[in-house]
Every structure is written in C-alpha cells, then in structure tokens.
C-alpha cells in the first residue's frame, strides 16, 4: 500500500503490484520479512522505480510496526 501511495505521489499509476511476503519466526516472534514484488508501472524508469521502492521500504508504517529486518526484492515488468 505504501508503494502505491509513493508511486501516486510521484505521478505514476501502477497497472499491477504483485507482492509475495515470506516471514521468518523465532519463538513466536517475527524476525524477518521478505517481500518479493513484481510491478508494472507505465512510464517509470528503472531508477525512478528503485527510488520509489526504497522510499516505501523506509517509510512503511507496517514495517515500522513489525520492528524486524525487512528485505525487498523488486522487479519492474
């Protein structure tokens, strides 16, 4: 959701954002979250996309709430 918001703020409307999330647990606590993203965003450059993903990763309120390592693998298709 944060990436969609960031992309919209940058003037882009994604056609699709497909995300798979895999979490790691240790003694019942989330220790890591891996987000695998495939995005179709017309008109965006690879550099702009990377910047938007980094912004969303850094400022996502859910990621902050989890307080664990967050990894994002993003692919622009």
Tell me about this structure.
It is built from three helices and three strands; from the N terminus they run αββααβ. The chain is of the alpha+beta class and 77 residues long. It has a single domain, classed as GMP Synthetase, Chain A, domain 3, CATH 3.30.300.20. A three-stranded mixed beta sheet has the order 1-2-3, covered by helices on one side. It is elongated and about 45 Å long. The model has no long low-confidence stretch (mean pLDDT 93).
Secondary structure blueprint with pairings:
Elements: H1 2-9, E1 16-26, E2 29-40, H2 46-59, H3 61-66, E3 69-76
Parallel strand pairs: 2-3
Antiparallel strand pairs: 1-2
CATH-derived topology: GMP Synthetase, Chain A, domain 3
Profile the largest sheet. 3 strands, mixed
Low-confidence stretches: none
Strand order across the largest sheet: 1-2-3
């Amino acid at each position: 959701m944060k990436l969609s918001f960031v992309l919209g703020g940058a003037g882009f409307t994604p056609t699709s954002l497909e995300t798979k999330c895999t979490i790691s647990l240790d003694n019942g606590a989330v220790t890591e979250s891996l987000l695998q993203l495939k995005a179709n965003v017309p008109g965006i450059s690879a550099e702009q996309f990377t910047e938007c993903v980094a912004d969303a990763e850094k400022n996502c309120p859910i990621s902050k709430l989890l307080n664990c390592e967050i990894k994002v693998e993003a692919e622009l298709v």
